[in-house]
Design goal:
The protein is α+β, with helices and mostly antiparallel strands. The longest helix has 16 residues. The protein contains 7 helices and 5 strands; from the N terminus they run H-H-H-H-H-E-E-E-H-E-E-H.
Length: about 180
């Protein structure tokens, strides 16, 4: 199969001279990418950004750390589910405990030392079993510890921006919201 340097179609070669994307378009695309990765709506994302901007430190890094320490993302990172959407549903359906108490708010912030577990009666859920046994599941990040047998994980420390394996330029999002 041969790859051509121009888009398909009758007018493909003629459209090689496409306009350069505006600065706004690049910023918006980056924001939309992060929103889709984490499965958030605009209002949720905006609120999270506002809270991150009021915290001490770099706003973009604060925002990324807040996104990573959401309960639904922690459940996904521990490998209890195959996707963030499935993790969100697992939390909403009350299958997850935080520090021994059932928590059904996917946006809850998890802190260092917090223990996240699948409820005792739900440890054998097919979704959790399949996800933990899956070969395609991502490697556990080093700021989380997991006991697969007991379906219990712990956040050992707060992640830094270097610990977050996403190719995202959060500074573009900060610039977009700062207008």
């Amino acid at each position: 199969m041969e790859r051509r340097a121009y888009p398909p179609g009758q007018h493909g070669p003629a459209q090689v001279r496409r306009r350069k994307q505006s600065e706004y378009a690049v910023q918006l695309r980056e924001k939309q990418k992060v929103k889709r990765i984490y499965g958030l709506h605009e209002k949720q994302f905006r609120t999270l950004f506002e809270k991150a901007s009021h915290r001490e430190g770099i706003t973009g890094e604060n925002m990324m750390i807040s996104l990573e320490t959401r309960l639904d993302n922690i459940v996904f990172r521990m490998g209890f589910t195959a996707s963030r959407t499935a993790a969100r549903q697992l939390v909403r359906h009350r299958h997850i405990e935080v520090n021994g108490k059932v928590l059904d708010v996917p946006s809850a912030q998890i802190g260092p030392g917090d223990e996240v577990a699948v409820r005792a009666k739900d440890k054998d859920l097919m979704v959790v079993q399949e996800s933990l046994e899956s070969r395609t599941r991502p490697a556990l990040v080093d700021w989380l510890a997991l006991d697969e047998k007991n379906r219990v994980g712990r956040m050992t420390r707060r992640p830094t921006r270097q610990d977050i394996p996403l190719a995202v330029q959060e500074q573009l999002i900060v610039e977009l919201y700062s207008k």
